[in-house]
Predict the 3D structure of the following.
Amino acid sequence: MTLQVFPAFHQQPTYKKMEASMKNICLLGFVVALVIGGLGEVNGDGDCGKADPNMEAFKLAPCASAAQDENASVSGGCCAAVKKLGQNPKCLCAVMLSNTAKSSGVKPEIAMTIPKRCNIADRPVGYKCGAYTLP
């Protein structure tokens, strides 16, 4: 005599078994998509790609005086750094408004004028950066 542990499962028609398997596969796919999407949020790209705007702000160290005083001259090193960061206006904005910049005494309303003061031709004129607009 053979003992059947799951007699109800063996008595189901084949299409019911396939339907249950497809539901499980779809559920598994959905869970995998959520996990991958969640990992993207944790390790995902921000305004400066994978770089932290607070760390990127150190690249603008040559701009310290120019970002505090609109009458200060803007060095070549500052202009080069701003031009490079300005290739991604979101990043430049995030850096200028970063905690590092604020704690360094950067005045955002003055910092926003640096691309223009550097005569960067392809600067993002009119780009909204928080409460400020790049001239």
